[in-house]
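User: Last request for today: this protein with pyridoxal-5'-phosphate, please.
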Amino acid sequence: MSLAAPAGSSRHGPPSPGPALAPADLAAAPVGTAPPGAGAVLAIDLDAIAANWRALRDRHAARRIAGVVKADAYGLGAAQVAPRLAAEGCRHFFVAHLAEAVALGPLLPADAMLAVLNGLMAGSTAEFRAHGLVPVLNDLAEIEAWANAARAAGTALPAILHIDTGMSRLGLDARSLERLAQDPSRLDGLDLRFVMSHLARSEEDVPMNPAQLARFRAACARLPRAPQSLANSSGLFLGPDYHFDLGRPGAATYGINPKPGHANPMRTTVRLLGRVLQVREIGAGESVGYGATFVAARPSRIATVAVGYADGYLRSLSARARAVIAGRAVPLVGRVSMDLITLDVTDLPEADAHAGAWAELIGPKEPPDAIAERAGTNGYEILTSLGARYHRQYLGRHPGQPAGEVR
Ligand SMILES: *Cc1c(COP(=O)(O)O)cnc(C)c1O
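Assistant: Here's the final one, the structure of the complex with pyridoxal-5'-phosphate:
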C-alpha cells in the first residue's frame, strides 16, 4: 500500500519538531502566552485531533482510515495536523486541490499516499508525477490521460477511481462506468489503489444510504479487483458494511458531531478567545452597532470584542450567538461587524468584564456545531471559515516530539 515517491519528488519525509508547546488542556488554553497585542487567540488541540482520529480508526472494521486534510485540514492547519496524523500511523491523505497536495507533500512520510479529490485536470499530469501524487480519476478522460502518462513513462501509475453513486458531483456516472466495464483495458498501466464513492446523506438514517452502498458494490463487481473506500465521518457510524478497506473521515476528526441529534462522541479540538477592547455604559434607549438593531431596554454595559466577520465569525450570528466570559454566558447583541462584535455584559461583575478580558467564542462549552446551528449552517463551514488574523496556538504533541513529553 505504500507509494514510493519518484526521483525528483519533493516528498522529503517527516518534518523536524515543531515549536515549543503549550499545555494540552483546551479548556485552560492559552491566554497566558498570547502576545499582548493579540486581538484573538485560536487554540488548536493536536492531541484532541489525534484522539479523534484514533477513535475513528478503532471504529473502522479494518482499522484503516485516511486523514482528510483538504481546505487546510478544515481550517485547522494542514501543515500541523497532517504530520501529527502521520505520527499516529495515518498513511493515506486526501486533499481537494493539486496545490494543497504540492504544499503538503514534503511534510508527509515518503511512504504515505497523498490523493487529490478534484482529480486530474488537463495539463497537470507532469505535476502529479513530479510530486508523487495520486489523482482521484473522476471521468473517462482523466483515466485516459493518466493511462497515457503511464504508457509514456513505461511504469504503472497509482490512481484512485471515483464512482458516482448518488452525489452527481464528481466521479464516473452510470454510462461511463458501463463503457469502462466493457473495456477494462482503459485502466492498463494504472495501479488502482482504491475504487471509491461518496455518501450524500450519511448523517441521516435514510434509504439512500443502503441504495448507495448497493450501487457501489455493483459498480465494484464490474471493475478489476481493487481495495475499496466509501465512508466519510458519518458513514463510519452506519455500520461495518460501509467500512470497506479505507474510511475517509474528515469532519469528525476535527470534532464535528458525526451523529447529529445524538451526543457528540468526538472531542472538541478548537477554542477561540476574543479580547475585550472596551467596556462601555449605555443608557436605556441607546442602540448598538450598524443598523442600530439592538436597543438597550435598561442601562447596560457593552463589551466590544476584537473578532468580526472578516475573521470568519459569520455575520449571520448577529444577535444570535453567545460568548463565555469568566465561566458565564453572555449574549452577542447587535450586528457582527467586520472586525468587532458587541456583547451585553450587564449581568457580569465588572471585575470579570473589563478591557483586556477574554471572551470564549468557540470551545468545549460552545462547540462549532452549536455555533453552526445559531448561524444556520453546519460545523464544517464554521471551521473552514476560521480566519487568518487569529493568533494561532497549537496545543499538544507536535510530530517529532516523544509521546507524553509536553512542555
Ligand atoms: C470531504 C470528503 C470526505 C470527508 O467527509 P466528512 O464528512 O468531512 O467526513 C470524504 N470523501 C470525500 C470524497 C470528500 O470530499
